[in-house]
Amino acid sequence: MRIVFMGSPEFAVPSLEALVEAGNEVVAAYCQPPRPAGRGKAERKTAVHERAEQLGIEVRTPRTLRDEEEQARFRALDADIAVVAAYGLILPKAILEAPKAGCINVHASLLPRWRGAAPIQRAILAGDDVTGVTIMQMEEGLDTGPMLFKMMAKIDRKNAGQLTEELAKLGALALTRWLEVPTPPEAQREIGVTYAKKIDKAETRIDWSASAMQIERQVRAFNPTPGAWFEFNGERIKLLRAAVDRGTGRPGHVIDDRLTIDCGDGAIRPLEVQRAGRGVMTAEELLRGFPIPKGTILK
Prior knowledge:
Layout: E1 2-7, H1 13-21, E2 25-30, E3 35-37, E4 42-44, H2 47-54, E5 59-60, H3 68-75, E6 81-85, H4 93-96, E7 103-107, E8 115-116, H5 119-125, E9 130-137, E10 147-154, H6 160-180, E11 195-196, H7 212-221, E12 228-232, E13 235-245, E14 261-262, E15 267-275, E16 280-282, H8 283-289
Parallel strand pairs: 1-2, 1-6, 2-5, 6-7, 8-11
Antiparallel strand pairs: 3-4, 7-9, 9-10, 12-13, 13-15, 14-15, 15-16
């Protein structure tokens, strides 16, 4: 099968690899363009870009797909189908209709729950017990197309990084299974639709008046990036792993020598933290060189 693959981050790599391993002809990989990253701001290729080059696949990185010339280049690939996984660009109608069987998407939620840009983080923040992947026929609406295949995963206490890795593998498995034995499309119900809007930086700051349970979800949802954080003595400290503990009803107060912090309901006991420009460390290691004494009030 002649396939165009469209994806950018690490999440999409297992799906690309699965297509190749199954013997499909991946005629091109479309990715987001390289962008400045790191302290030196050197241009960095996306994970799919790098893997596609290793596999000997032509890589294309247009900044838009609305240009007629770019659409003509896409049609010239004469693909049977296009597979999309966290690509990062909206596909106009001319692209959606170009492959013989259209475009399908590997989406990291159990649709219609969590349509949109950040389904993994939103599922964790909402306290969902389960999530999964949906293989979906794409149309012009935001993740509104008919569903082709689903696979479920338990969230448990996983953070966003761990869950992303699990769903990436699950998505690759679901994709190959559907391609091997296609099942008929099923329209999405309008009941139970939720939208996973992009993560706003303002959401990453910890509000100690929230419940300890909600803050613990926030910590997991934003680990490894962008990281939930609080401030002390003018320095941001990322909270990467935490446990829920008993509180005393004084939000923001440090209530013991282990950096347990009171919340609106319950308390948070930090387990792993990170100062700016430093590596990940335990709360105990942090306190040795950066004391935050009992009785401190964190805003």
